[in-house]
């Protein structure tokens, strides 16, 4: 829950100060997380700064960072800064890749996301594996700059990682588009993340991961359903040779429904990883269900259960229950 | 000195926003610390966030962290989060153990606590040694969850460390109670912190430290006197064998008196460490005196002298002098 | 752009609270930095706390730290705390050395300082080399305490590092004075930073770096020109022997001019490093030009080009362009 501190506004009214503003908000949680039956108490409290302003020419700008990642935000790998106007919005820092910003993730469940099994990783976002939490980090080939432009029902996102030779010779970019009509939003995206060997025996060899993603979501009253699809493939090219390392294809769906103070959420997602080179053909199934109850005043109770990283029958389950606060 | 930012309140009055709130306060100090005659300039400045709110059902909740330990607060090992109501108050994070919360510490002296020689450590709080600064850390067997319940003159505290198998197989808990009548407060507490070897030759061997503590304090006008007692013992059990490693018994007293802007403080505490196994029988005496002067506006001057860790005649003295500010 | 949160003030008016205050401000930037033709996106966002108050006796006090260096500020190596009155101002923490505070630096250019080639290092500030960014760090022999006193046109600064034997046996101090008449400011300073071997074969050997610095700046309307000079020398003394290790002499000038919303800046500085012992005699030339444009509301656009660390013809160039925001 973000709050605009009125302080500066009052000052600026009386003394012609610049209109730029800083607000501080926070979130906290306390609960129990159980992984494969092993339970631990879990808690955290975090605070976030948000700065915003407007130029004389009407461009909006701002920046935000949490107190706990303020060091990264000072170095450009956490938090973000933006400027926006009729031309769209340009963000830098720990931003989403263009395809991720458009296609998004399935609904999460539970108190702390119950293991975040709902998410897929995007190559251009720095996430190279097919499953698990999104590897969002500006420093390792992930998106560093995100450009967003909206016109009517259409929103386009495009991102790039660091420029050539910046950041360990990674090169990445992602593009995405989303179109909304009625309660329906359709989104597609494409991302690429490659790294080139610049010396040694394999100089010039390039390893790359690319993915094409799509999602469709439909909101009817207080219920939203969403389906997601991603086809990710990895290959290495060296001189004239080109080696297909394999692919990971994910398909999933989620539903979230709010009935008065109660929110029900569920997702299921399946990722098929195949590789002729490694002679692999496995399917990872993940699913989760969750319930939330709005306690009012910025507090909510929630609980979730998820089966994450279940490879061909073997299973890893995670359960959580607790309260979330926002200040 | 904490301050409630009015900002959100004003917003919520006008627009029905949630009543949750964030305030920012700070403290700073500058002075000179002299340890065994070796003097150094010492300074610091810290800022603290406090979030608070109330659910629709009337439960109060909140969380706090300092900017300098925001990383730990995000991971649950610093700062804390709480929810409270008629049932009492539950806190998680870097909380006191139940016995420590009830029994407390003697009055500290000087500008930066003059070495904190006034304090005893509590086993359930993560502090395993008999003397010195309290080893308060949620990550190493110390208290993770604290429950407090008050009814009239009686306040009960109970804490637990991480659940079984969480955090390096530590298990800890602490309970305490305090009763106040007139200017007198009597408190008792019990704490236990054990660690079990889960593999290797000594699998099943358990080392544990337990302590029973008590304090009595009496306030008359602007003067408070306090006496404290703690009996801490360590033992190892393996199969049917039980080995007494020794004990540390501490006894001490302090007095703090405020005369107009001047505060005078003094403490003395003695810890007798005995171990038949190690053939040890030493007594550590610590004492300190301090003076403070309230400069007004959140500033104060203070100076202290303490003899800390003086083992059987050998002495380590510490002196400090400086100003403290609170914002 | 700092802002005073009115919150506490309002509280104190209505309820007699202490007048101490905390404000939060921020800055952010996004742009491109090009070093020797290798370009990278660069961004950051930072937030800063400032606490202030006044004692009943009229002394002003305060402290400040950024969220990203809050850890250092808690340990005394970042941020700073001060108290001031008719006697002057005493600051502790990551403060400037006395000579640096008086003599200062040339104008910087560009969006992120374009490599900070404009600056010279001050021995008493922890910066031991003749060129490059100022090695301002309270922990390594740099200034820990700064005293400032102004009387009419004269301002005197004096600093000291940690006291004897504090901080790896460094001893440092710096003194400076600045005199302003009309648009002209003349400043001189002297600094010394030495380290003594306290054991080993060379016990008693002392290495020291001293520098004498001077600057003159003249402001006419919206244009300021500044010239700077520094003679730094290093030597080692052991018993009766005294070895001259060499010297670094810097001379430079800068100009900054503001025409409506446009700011133009340029500097040039030359450092001659000579050492009979090492048989070195090299001259490092640095120069830079920059342009800024005030976008209003706390935002500005800027670009700079600098040739930094150019040793006897060899050259390292840096270019940057981007926007800066302040909240």
Helix content bin of chain A: under 10%
- Largest inter-chain interface? A-B, 37 and 51 residues
Question: What about the largest sheet of chain A?
Answer: 16 strands, antiparallel, barrel
The side-by-side strand order for the widest beta sheet of chain A comes to: 1-2-3-4-5-6-7-8-9-10-11-12-13-14-15-16
Q: What structural category characterises the helix and strand content of chain A? A: mainly beta
In DSSP terms (H or I, runs of 4 or more residues), the helix count of chain A works out at: 3
Radius of gyration of chain A, taken over Cα atoms and rounded to an integer in Å: 22 Å
Number of E strands of chain A:
16
Name the overall outline of chain A.
Answer: globular
Alpha carbon gap, first and last residue of chain A: 6 Å
Low-confidence stretches of chain A: 1-18, 129-139
What's the multimeric state? homotrimer
What is the residue-averaged pLDDT of chain A?
Answer: 86
Q: Estimate what percentage of residues of chain A fall within beta strands.
A: over 45%
The secondary-structure element order of chain A is HEEEHEEHEEEEEEEEEEE
């Amino acid at each position: 829950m973000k709050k605009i501190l009125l302080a500066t506004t009052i000052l600026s009214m009386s003394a012609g100060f610049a209109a730029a503003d800083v607000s501080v908000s926070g979130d906290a949680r306390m609960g129990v997380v159980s992984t494969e039956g092993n339970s631990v108490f879990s808690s955290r409290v975090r605070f976030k700064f948000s700065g915003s302003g407007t130029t004389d020419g009407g461009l909006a700008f701002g920046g935000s960072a949490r107190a706990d990642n303020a060091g990264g935000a000072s170095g450009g790998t956490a938090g973000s800064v933006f400027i926006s106007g009729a031309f769209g919005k340009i963000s830098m820092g720990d931003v989403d890749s263009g395809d991720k910003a458009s296609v998004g993730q399935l609904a999460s469940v539970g108190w702390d996301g119950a293991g975040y099994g709902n998410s897929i990783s995007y190559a251009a976002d720095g996430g190279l594996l097919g499953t698990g939490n999104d590897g969002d980090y500006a420093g390792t080939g992930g998106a560093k700059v995100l450009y967003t432009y909206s016109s009517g029902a259409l929103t386009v996102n495009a991102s790039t990682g660091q420029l050539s030779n910046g950041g360990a010779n990674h090169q990445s970019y992602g593009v995405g588009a989303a179109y909304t009509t009625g309660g329906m939003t359709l989104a597609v995206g494409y991302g690429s993340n490659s790294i080139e060997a610049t010396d040694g025996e394999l100089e010039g060899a390039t390893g790359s991961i690319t993915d094409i993603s799509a999602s469709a979501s439909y909101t009817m009253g207080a219920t939203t359903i969403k389906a997601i699809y991603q086809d990710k493939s990895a290959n290495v090219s060296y001189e004239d040779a080109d080696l297909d390392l394999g692919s990971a294809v994910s398909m999933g769906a989620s539903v979230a429904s709010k009935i008065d103070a109660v929110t029900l959420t569920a997702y299921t997602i399946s990722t098929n990883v195949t590789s002729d080179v490694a002679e692999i053909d496995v399917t990872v199934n993940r699913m989760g269900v969750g319930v939330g109850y709005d306690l009012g005043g910025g507090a909510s109770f929630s609980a979730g259960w998820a089966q994450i990283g279940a490879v061909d029958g073997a299973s890893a389950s995670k359960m959580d229950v607790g309260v979330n606060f926002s200040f």
